[in-house]
């Protein structure tokens, strides 16, 4: 984890974004237990997003439920529903679990708070590098 103010260079000389050690720890905590989740609000360039932080496996499980409900249990829908699990399995085979930084954040039961009304969605995934700030808990 990077110290405040330190920005390591990549092999091409580009400066990597600083790592938020606290957020990285939260991402790792929810990744190790499939049933783990915590309420969180994230600030991104697109606005504020609130929901429950979950690990990639729990998010993939929820994706599968949502797709199956939306388009029914047809053969084509099964392939789409299982897509996140398939991708995660392929990545583990090709790259292994090297304990590196978490590249994505996964939320379920999401509310977009920076737009008129209260639009919601059951699943959301975004790049950790796009998160400007965050707070624990749901908005009141």
Structure, described:
- This protein is of the alpha+beta class and 140 residues long.
- Helix content is 34%, strand content 26%.
- The chain is built from 4 helices and 5 strands, in the order αββαααβββ.
- It has a 5-stranded antiparallel β-sheet.
- A hairpin with a 2-residue loop joins strand 1 and strand 2.
* Poorly predicted runs of 5 or more residues: none
Strand composition percent: 25-35%
Note the overall shape.
globular
Overall mean pLDDT stands at 81
Helix content: 25-40%
Order of helices and strands: HEEHHHEEE
Provide tags for this entry.
5-stranded antiparallel beta sheet
SSE layout and pairing:
Elements: H1 21-32, E1 38-44, E2 47-54, H2 56-71, H3 75-81, H4 83-95, E3 104-112, E4 120-127, E5 133-136
Antiparallel strand pairs: 1-2, 1-5, 2-3, 3-4
Helix pairs in contact: 2-3, 2-4
Q: Quick summary of this structure?
A:
This protein has helices at residues 21-32, 56-71, 75-81, 83-95, and strands at residues 38-44, 47-54, 104-112, 120-127, 133-136. It has 4 helices and 5 strands.
């Amino acid at each position: 984890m990077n110290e405040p103010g330190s920005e390591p260079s990549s092999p091409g000389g580009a400066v990597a974004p600083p790592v938020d050690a606290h957020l990285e720890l939260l991402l790792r905590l929810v990744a190790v237990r499939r049933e783990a989740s915590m309420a969180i609000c994230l600030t991104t360039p697109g606005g504020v997003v609130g929901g429950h932080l979950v690990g990639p496996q729990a998010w993939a499980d929820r994706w599968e439920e949502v797709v199956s409900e939306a388009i029914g249990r047809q053969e084509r829908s099964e392939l789409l529903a299982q897509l996140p699990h398939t991708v995660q399995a392929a990545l583990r085979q090709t790259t292994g679990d090297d304990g590196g930084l978490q590249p994505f954040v996964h939320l379920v039961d999401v509310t977009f708070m920076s737009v008129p009304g209260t639009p919601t969605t059951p699943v959301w995934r975004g790049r950790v590098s796009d998160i400007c700030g965050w707070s624990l808990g749901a908005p009141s």
